[in-house]
Write a structure and sequence with these properties.
Number of strands of chain B: 10
Structural class of chain B: alpha/beta
Oligomer: heterodimer
Number of helices of chain A: 14
Radius of gyration of chain A: 29 Å
CATH topology of chain B: Rossmann fold
Strand content of chain A: 15-25%
Distance between the termini of chain B: 12 Å
Number of domains of chain B: 1
Shape of chain B: globular
Strand order of the largest sheet of chain B: 6-7-8-3-9-10
CATH architecture of chain B: 3-Layer(aba) Sandwich
Strand order of the largest sheet of chain A: 4-7-8-6-9-5-3-11-1-12
Order of helices and strands of chain A: HHEEHEEEHHEHEEEHEEHEHHHHHH
Shape of chain A: elongated
Largest sheet of chain A: 10 strands, mixed
Radius of gyration of chain B: 18 Å
Structural class of chain A: alpha+beta
Helix content of chain B: 25-40%
Strand content of chain B: 25-35%
CATH superfamily of chain B: P-loop containing nucleotide triphosphate hydrolases
Helix content of chain A: 40-55%
């Protein structure tokens, strides 16, 4: 037997209690890992490097309002702007209104879109086919796999915002993460079919020549339209995406609140368990010290026990979170969670939290037990 | 053995424990309790001493002083020539691991460890490797007649066997002094005799100095000399 094996045996001397503690910590760490993963995806990850070169211009008041199509060329004239492409939400129905058949559909200008979204990385022949066919569509690889689409397949999108049904042909497929579950088509199809849509664009995706220029270009675009009847709001692509998240409420405070509550709750659970477990063994501590174990040895043994139990729970929670995130990120109903993954950094932080919880929860009762005199400990009836 | 003979014999033997004017006073609320009152006593190498006396007479307190588990209010204690009250906690712990084997009335085995693992515990603090530790454990358990119970948990052993495991644990580091606090207090007479025979063997065959606290005259009869304590004071021989 080694001291490590001794700690392991002591940790599991009350299997039911230790098991319940591990489950509590595991569930809490699962929640914490999920929260950290979402936090990372929303507020830390910057997406593809190309995304750092893009800004999005939309109506200052709301995304629900269109921008004049004439803005495209005006924006193009702003120093630092390389390409401008319209992006209009079509919101059509594929087959039916079941959630699993919902996906993002944007009307755009294919010829310039492929320049703004360089990371799409479309095979040249597919790219040309999409640009040439005014009823052609580009789809994300995941979306194509989900619906079994191949190049040349025809699909119908029933208009819900625009009174037109689009009869599209799949001309290109991209494996870019950002476009994994979206469809892009030539917006002129809608403009020709719906009179009031002509010259009306949902927003513009703007590519600038340098990431350093993003704030300057954004300001210049908004300044250009500040006193017009249709003022704009221009922001980085990441900020634009965060704007959607902000519509759900103060997500940042929500995630922080839950994370802090989780850590506090597991501290209480783990602390209570360790306190009970150590209190029952006061006499045993005295016996160990009688054999020659020092106060520091005892402290180390108990803290090791607390950290071990906590880490086992943490590992279980993190593993489960990994499975869950993978499942959600790849499920048809993944929505905004698409493409999420638990990063090694998140794993390390979660396990550090678990170890910290184990250490803190064991320290106080362990310190008290180790500090107790041997004679007093031997008199203890635990 | 007559007192004069004992005094003659002890004069030439090595002094193992030398307690000099030991007093231990506990303050409880407004009054004081004298657990030990100016006790001076010497134990010699190879002694098997029984400490007797009523409850609260200070027997266990004296035993705890010898093991550097407790400190006196006044007095000095030299064990194997060392002033043990000068040790700090860490030095005292390391010294106990080397010099003292302690046997409790209630065995105090760790319930989740096997007999062998319980015996091995004090060796985890030494520099012995796994193989050496295993050899020591086997030797100790065979010595107490439990070579075939190495993998048994305490709950699978009888009270007498548990106490024999506890004795094996106390002797596994080969300490010079064995301190036993009512080692037969929780045992039936048959098991008690087995335990006392083992202590006698350890004293006679291995030269261990044994100081045993007991209420039981039968247990005391195994000792070479019996000393009585009453109200914290050592009664004259």
């Amino acid at each position: 037997m080694t001291l490590t094996q001794f700690v392991a045996k002591q940790a599991f001397r009350n299997k039911r209690r230790t098991g319940m503690t591990i489950i509590s910590i595991g569930v809490s760490l699962l929640l914490l890992t999920l929260m950290m993963t979402v936090w990372r995806a929303f507020y830390i990850d910057q997406g593809a490097p190309e995304a750092a070169l893009r800004v999005v211009t939309r109506h200052r008041v709301s995304l629900a309002f269109f921008l004049p199509g004439s803005y495209r060329n005006k924006i193009r004239s702003v120093p630092g702007v390389v390409n401008v492409v319209p992006m209009s939400w079509f919101g059509g129905q594929y087959k039916d209104d079941k959630p699993e058949n919902f996906f993002a559909q944007f009307g755009t200008d294919p010829a310039e879109a492929v320049k703004v979204y360089g990371e799409w990385n479309i095979p040249p022949e597919q790219q040309q086919a999409w640009i040439r066919d005014r009823a052609g569509a580009l789809v994300g690889k995941k979306l194509a796999e989900k619906h079994g689409w191949k190049i040349g397949d025809k699909i119908i999108l029933k208009g819900t915002i625009f009174p037109v049904d689009l009869n599209l042909t799949i001309r290109a497929i991209t494996d870019a993460d950002d476009a994994a579950d979206a469809l892009y088509f030539n917006y002129s199809y809608v403009e020709e079919a719906v009179g009031w849509a002509k010259g009306q664009d949902g927003m513009f995706a703007v590519r600038v020549d340098s990431a350093d220029d993003v704030p300057v270009v954004s300001k210049a675009i908004d300044d250009m339209f500040r006193n017009s009847p249709t003022p704009t709001k221009t922001e980085s692509e990441k900020a634009f995406q965060l704007g959607f998240i902000a519509m759900m409420g103060n997500v940042k405070a929500f995630i922080l609140g839950i994370s802090m509550a989780v850590v506090f709750a597991i501290l209480l659970v783990s602390g209570n368990t360790m306190a009970m477990s150590i209190r029952e063994r006061i006499r045993e501590v005295a016996v160990l010290k009688t054999m020659g174990f020092t106060r520091r040895d005892v402290l180390t043994l108990f803290i090791g026990e607390g950290v071990a139990v906590s880490l086992i729970g943490g590992l279980a929670g993190v593993a489960l979170a990994n499975v869950l995130v993978h499942g959600v990120a790849n499920s048809p109903a993944g929505g905004m969670m698409r493409g999420l993954s638990v990063t090694p950094g998140t794993l390390v932080v979660a396990l550090t939290v678990a170890a910290f919880v184990g250490l803190v929860s064991a320290f106080v009762p362990a310190y008290r037990a180790s500090d107790l005199g041997i004679a007093e400990g031997l008199r203890h009836l635990g | 053995m007559a007192t004069s003979e004992l005094m003659q014999e002890t004069a030439v033997r090595t002094k193992v424990v030398e307690a000099i004017h030991i007093s231990k006073i506990f303050s409880r609320d407004t009054f004081e309790v004298r657990a030990l009152d100016d006790v001076s006593i010497d134990f010699y190498e190879g002694d098997f001493v029984a400490l007797m006396g009523p409850s609260g007479s200070g027997k266990t307190s004296l035993l705890n002083m010898i093991a550097a588990i407790d400190r006196p209010t006044h007095g000095q204690m030299r064990v194997l020539g060392e002033n043990i009250f000068a040790f700090n906690d860490q030095e005292a712990a390391q010294w106990r691991n080397r010099v003292i084997g302690y046997i409790f009335q209630t065995f105090n085995l760790i319930p989740v460890l096997t007999a062998a693992e319980n015996v091995e515990l004090p060796l985890l603090l030494t520099r012995l490797n796994k193989q050496q530790r295993r050899e020591h454990v086997e030797t100790a358990l065979k010595l107490v007649g439990l070579g075939d119970r190495m993998t048994h948990l305490p709950k699978q052993l009888s009270g007498g066997q548990e106490q024999r495991v506890a004795i094996a644990r106390a002797i596994v580091t080969d300490p010079k002094i064995l301190l036993a606090d009512e080692p037969t207090g929780d045992l039936d007479s048959h098991s008690a005799t087995e335990v006392l025979e083992i202590l006698k063997m350890l004293n006679e065959d291995f030269g261990k100095t044994i100081v045993m606290v007991t209420h039981d005259p039968h247990a005391a009869s195994y000792a070479h000399v019996t000393r009585h304590l009453e109200k914290g004071m050592l009664l004259r021989l």
